[in-house]
From TrEMBL:
GO molecular function, one term: DNA-directed RNA polymerase activity
PANTHER family: DNA-DIRECTED RNA POLYMERASE, DNA-DIRECTED RNA POLYMERASE III SUBUNIT RPC10
High-level lineage: Archaea, Methanobacteriati, Methanobacteriota, Stenosarchaea group, Halobacteria
Record's protein name: DNA-directed RNA polymerase subunit M
Cellular component annotations (GO), alphabetically ordered: DNA-directed RNA polymerase complex
């Protein structure tokens, strides 16, 4: 998250993020009438002429992901619904909320068919 705030106000001069602290020591946030004390201490707002822009960007770290074919998975005696072979690689994956059972994902070691079994 990036915040761009005007720095031409005297209280902003010593801070990279704006008039950070109120005289009571609490953090100030931009409000409708200027910079407001977060604790609501009653101190008057400062600088009603401010700009506040928020942008959010997120970059995906591709080094955390391993191609599915590169995984060495355990095998289990499970019949493939496509070819009828009785061996499949399997893994558990939490696809729903944490209080629900995990989903078992299978891949046939003969034909590569993929299927799932919800806990």
């Amino acid at each position: 998250m990036t915040r761009n705030i005007r720095r031409d106000h005297p209280e902003n001069a010593s801070s990279d993020t704006g008039p950070v602290f109120c005289t009571c020591g609490s953090y100030r946030l931009p409000g409708h009438d200027g910079w407001q004390c977060r604790q609501g201490c009653g101190q008057p707002a400062t600088d009603t002429n401010f700009e506040f822009t928020t942008t959010t960007s997120q970059q995906q770290d591709s080094s955390r992901f391993v191609p599915e074919d590169a995984l060495y998975l355990p095998t289990i005696n499970e019949i493939c619904p496509r070819c009828g072979y009785n061996e499949a690689e399997w893994r558990l994956h939490q696809t729903r909320s944490a209080d629900e059972p995990e989903t078992r994902l299978f891949r046939c070691t003969r034909c590569g068919h993929k299927w799932r079994s919800d806990g």
